[in-house]
Amino acid sequence: MFFIPLGDRVFDTRMILFQIVTLQLAHYITLGILIMGVDFVLGVKPTVEQFFSYKAVNVSNRIGIATMISFFLNALSGSLLLFVVVQRSQKCLDFTITIYIVHFFICVFYKAFPVYWEWWVCTIICIVAMITLGEYICYKREIRDIPITQSAPEDKNQDDVSITIEKDPERTK
């Protein structure tokens, strides 16, 4: 897991590019795993068309439904990837939109401009789900309490003063 302190607001171009490439690769790897799994369960043969063709995303056949389920599950797993790679709720929107813009251009170059309404609805739902869940998970981590521990005295020769408070068993009754 990448550790970026939450207080750092340094603009690091290399780190951002690394995060984009990492998320894009992880997006397609998890999508491939999910397509194979969902296709296996529904008895459909996986194809490359399911990745990049807008024609594969439709509600009229099992391949289209399997593809839509895979894309939605991938958006949910993408939110976990945002938590691991990006770690900031403020950046989830930017990275998610970047992933789907790159995916859009790959789809356009692979086949053509997406004209099926199912592709657009599926993509918009996936974007909203990934942003919302990603921001929620990252925000939950950001608002955790910061543990404050008391350090030991530096000079071991000094007397350590400690106070012990014991509850009176008769008082608690």
What secondary-structure arrangement, pairings included, does this model have?
Layout: H1 13-42, H2 49-52, H3 62-85, H4 92-110, H5 117-142
Q: Give the tally of structural domains.
A: 1
The tally of strands reads: 0
Q: How many strands, what sense, and barrel or not for the largest sheet? A: none
What is the overall shape? elongated
From the alpha carbons, calculate the radius of gyration and give it in angstroms.
24 Å
Output the number of helix runs.
5
Uncertain runs are none
Helix content: 55-70%
SS content category = mainly alpha
Keywords: Golgi apparatus, Membrane, Protein transport, Transmembrane, Transmembrane helix, Transport
GO cellular component, one term: trans-Golgi network
Subcellular location: Golgi apparatus membrane
Membrane topology: Multi-pass membrane protein
Polypeptide structure, described:
This protein has helices spanning 13-42, 49-52, 62-85, 92-110, 117-142. By secondary structure, the chain is mainly alpha-helical. It has one domain (13-142). Helix 1 (13-42) packs antiparallel against helix 3 (62-85), helix 1 (13-42) crosses helix 4 (92-110) and helix 4 runs antiparallel to helix 5. This is Sys. InterPro entries: Integral_membrane_SYS1-rel. Belongs to the SYS1 family.
